[in-house]
């Protein structure tokens, strides 16, 4: 087995230099599967955060990166992809030990991360402006895309390196400079990304990485007047705070927030495929996924058969050692999230939801006695139950019955969220009709997969705004400048004096 990168003590990346926190402070990071300490991480102060933003500001204003030929930026972003691919084994294991996800999941994510950087390497030379119809005969009119400036990228703990790539790759391709703030619990692969970026040729000050466990660090970044844009992934409640704070300085904002996404299964669906897809859709990454299809809506004619198969297969999923390639459900990343899952399972029981299976942590033996794990869990519930309406963010499915297509659409849309959905039906006309009717940023038909580089990802309603992963993301890291050129033969003399 390969070994994770040695990270017993980490530093901040500010202005191209690695340095300790200004007051020398650190905090501990532990493996959520074992409870073992794996790193002392630099605890950034407000002074450190300010230094990082100012470094990004100076670098942007100097124009070395922003004005670099797009083709050259593309080569550097592509080099990042190459280096990540070469180090995928070590990065995967680092992610497993810091986050608790399974090694199989981590390896799959590393492939997607390479794809993301490769996609935006190509996008760097395709951030096109437009030639416009001239407003008057003696004019040429066109637009150009220019980088938005300094980006504050705030990344959650459930997909640490993957979601960092969704922000860093397009920001670099567009010519922006970045201050990356990973979640306090899962900073280690973001630090590795900083090292890789420097090795790939990203100029000093273009990518800065600040780590810390203090609650104010992200807020300081959002409030900083030298930051032009915030790209945030996290909870809807925090997203509202970010949006309100960013409005005070008129920052551009991209928010990818919570979800309570449905899988809608019709009577005519391939039940075996729908069961397999629904299992993955809710239990992938131990359910710690904003697009998890945690509401499984089942038409009456298929309900009993689906529930029987779903329960049988879910209880065969292997929970345990995240480094074992046979494990399918790893650890819960933080103690706060573990307790949240526990509380929602208690709420479900109190509401009268029927427990199908699970509802508690597994017995895994002494090696993982200090770890945080939760068995795959499912409830038969009603649409008004809190466990149906509120995001749990764990391996907990709720199953709800419906009778017809109109009711299915109403149930799917009966949520404050609108991030993702799956529709299962052999009637492709109905599947597409329902997909159009669901108020969601993405809908997958007869598949649980909906996230690919090149396919825009983001939410409706309380799931946020803006899109990641697509070409249109480049526009969210750019400003549009209109250029008007007078080409008339006679000099301009509007006042005729």
What does this entry look like structurally?
This protein has 15 helices and 22 strands. The chain has 497 residues and is of the alpha/beta class. The strands form six sheets. A seven-stranded mixed β-sheet has the order 14-15-16-13-12-18-19, sandwiched between helices. The protein has a six-stranded mixed β-sheet with strand order 9-8-7-10-11-21, with helices on both faces. A three-stranded antiparallel β-sheet has the order 5-6-22. Helix 9 links the parallel strand 12 (262-265) and strand 13. The longest helix has 21 residues, at 103-123.
Query: What proportion of the residues form beta strands (DSSP E)?
Result: 15-25%
| Tally of distinct domains | 2
Extended strand count: 22
Give me the number of helical elements: 15
Rg: 24 Å
Whole-number mean pLDDT: 96
Characteristics of this structure?
497 residues, alpha/beta, Aldehyde Dehydrogenase, Chain A, domain 1, Aldehyde Dehydrogenase, Chain A, domain 2, 2 domains, 6-stranded mixed β-sheet, 15 helices, 20% strand, disordered N terminus
Short characterization:
This protein is α/β, with parallel strands linked by helices.
Helix and strand arrangement:
Blueprint: E1 12-14, E2 17-19, E3 26-30, E4 37-42, H1 46-62, H2 70-86, H3 88-99, H4 103-123, E5 131-132, E6 139-147, E7 150-154, H5 160-174, E8 177-181, H6 188-200, E9 207-209, H7 216-223, E10 229-233, H8 236-248, E11 252-256, E12 262-265, H9 271-283, E13 295-299, H10 300-314, H11 335-351, E14 354-357, E15 377-380, H12 386-389, E16 396-402, H13 405-413, E17 417-418, E18 420-424, H14 428-437, E19 442-445, E20 460-461, E21 464-465, H15 472-476, E22 478-486
Helix pairs in contact: 1-7, 2-4, 2-5, 2-6, 3-4, 4-5, 9-10
């Amino acid at each position: 087995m390969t070994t994770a990168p040695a990270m017993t003590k980490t530093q901040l990346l500010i202005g191209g230099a690695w340095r300790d926190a200004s007051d020398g402070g650190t905090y501990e990071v532990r493996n959520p599967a074992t409870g073992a300490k794996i790193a002392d991480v630099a605890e950034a102060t407000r002074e450190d955060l300010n230094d990082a933003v100012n470094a990004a500001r100076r670098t942007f204003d100097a124009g070395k990166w922003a004005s670099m030929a797009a083709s050259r930026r593309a080569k550097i972003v592509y080099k990042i992809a190459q280096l990540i691919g070469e180090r995928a084994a070590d990065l995967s294991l680092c992610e497993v030990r810091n986050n608790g996800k399974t090694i199989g999941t981590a390896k799959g994510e590393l492939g997607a991360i390479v794809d993301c950087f490769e996609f935006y390497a190509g996008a760097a030379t395709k951030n096109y402006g437009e030639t416009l119809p001239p407003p008057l005969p003696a004019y040429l009119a066109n637009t150009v895309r220019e980088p938005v400036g300094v980006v504050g990228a705030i990344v959650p703990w459930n997909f640490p390196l993957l979601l960092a790539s969704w922000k860093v790759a397009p920001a670099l391709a567009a010519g922006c400079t970045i201050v990356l703030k990973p979640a306090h619990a899962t900073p280690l692969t973001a630090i590795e990304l900083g090292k890789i970026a420097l090795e790939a040729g990203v100029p000093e000050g273009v990518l800065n990485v600040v780590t810390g466990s203090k609650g104010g660090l992200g807020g300081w970044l959002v409030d900083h007047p030298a930051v032009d844009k915030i790209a945030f992934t996290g909870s809807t409640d925090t997203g509202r705070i970010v949006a309100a704070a960013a409005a005070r300085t008129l920052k551009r904002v991209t928010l990818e927030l919570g979800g309570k996404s449905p899988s809608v299964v019709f009577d005519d669906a391939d039940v075996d495929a729908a069961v397999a897809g629904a299992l993955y859709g809710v239990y992938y990454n131990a359910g710690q996924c904003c697009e998890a299809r945690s509401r499984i809506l089942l038409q009456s004619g298929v309900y009993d058969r689906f529930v029987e198969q779903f329960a049988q297969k879910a209880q065969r999923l292997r929970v345990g050692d995240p480094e074992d390639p046979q494990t399918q459900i790893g650890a819960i990343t933080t103690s706060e999230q573990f307790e949240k899952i526990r509380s929602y399972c208690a709420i479900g029981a109190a509401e009268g939801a029927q427990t199908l299976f699970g509802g508690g942590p597994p017995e895994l033996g002494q090696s993982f006695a200090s770890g945080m794990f939760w068995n795959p869990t499912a409830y038969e519930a009603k649409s008004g139950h809190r466990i149906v309406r509120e995001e749990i963010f764990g391996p907990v499915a709720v199953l709800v019955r419906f009778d017809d297509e109109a009711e299915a659409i109403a149930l799917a849309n009966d949520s404050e969220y609108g991030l993702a959905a799956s529709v299962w039906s052999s009637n492709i006309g109905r599947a597409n009709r329902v997909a159009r009717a669901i108020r969601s940023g993405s809908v997958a038909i007869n598949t649980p997969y909906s996230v690919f580089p090149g396919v825009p990802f983001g939410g409706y309603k309380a799931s946020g705004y803006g899109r990641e992963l697509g070409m249109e993301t480049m526009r969210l890291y750019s400003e549009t400048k209109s250029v008007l050129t007078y080409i008339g033969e006679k000099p301009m003399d509007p006042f005729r004096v």
